[in-house]
TrEMBL record:
One Pfam family from the record: His_Phos_1
Binding site residues for substrate: 60
Organism in which the protein naturally occurs: Peredibacter starrii
Gene that produces this protein: sixA
Protein's recorded name: Phosphohistidine phosphatase SixA
InterPro entries for the chain: His_Pase_superF_clade-1, His_PPase_superfam, SixA
GO MF annotation: an example: protein histidine phosphatase activity
Assigned GO CC terms: cytoplasm
Origin superkingdom: Bacteria
Xref: CDD domains: HP_PGM_like (cd07067)
Length: 164
């Protein structure tokens, strides 16, 4: 079982023209979209074997998930409401309890839910501080949800410095 966590890329500011934007409609900036494209392209070996891409319903996450999907058109694609910023790590875990342990799954969402969910999956009794930067990627792998280990964590800046 492999779980790939991707934080959406840099999005528009919440305040635009001195009015509060609807958080569900915020889009990726041009730079944010480019950053995610470069990350997905550079890490193609991670993204090419995904069985299902799950995304938060917020627009910037959907845009990010579409970029991940562009690297792997064989993936299934689903909106997962427990990836929205108002969900809890327990709700997220409950929504993925029945995933096939032979699968590779990608989850595109937001902080702090992604890091809290990874912490919850890795060790419910001890706080492990993991936080994804915008456009960052983390991979958990194991035989089951109960046996997951953190195998990879990368920021977009780290990816651009790597030469694959």
């Amino acid at each position: 079982m492999k779980l790939i966590f991707v934080r959406h890329g840099t999005a528009e500011d919440k305040k635009k023209n001195q009015t509060e934007m609807d958080d569900f409609k915020r889009r990726l900036t041009k730079d944010g979209a480019q950053e995610v494209k470069e990350m997905v392209h550079s890490l193609h070996f991670i993204f090419r074997k995904i069985d299902v891409i799950y995304t938060s319903p917020l627009f910037r996450a959907v845009q990010t998930a579409n970029i991940v999907y562009s690297e792997n058109h064989k993936s299934e694609y689903e909106i997962l409401t427990t990836l929205d910023p108002f969900s809890t790590p327990k709700e997220f875990k409950n929504s993925i309890n029945d995933l096939d342990t032979d699968g590779v799954y990608c989850f595109v969402g937001h902080e702090p839910l992604l890091s809290q969910s990874m912490n919850y999956l890795l060790n419910k009794n001890c706080e492990i501080r993991i936080e994804l930067e915008k456009g960052g990627v983390a991979v958990l792998a194991g035989e089951s949800l109960e046996e997951l280990k953190l195998t990879t964590i990368l920021s977009p800046r780290m990816v651009t410095k790597l030469d694959f």
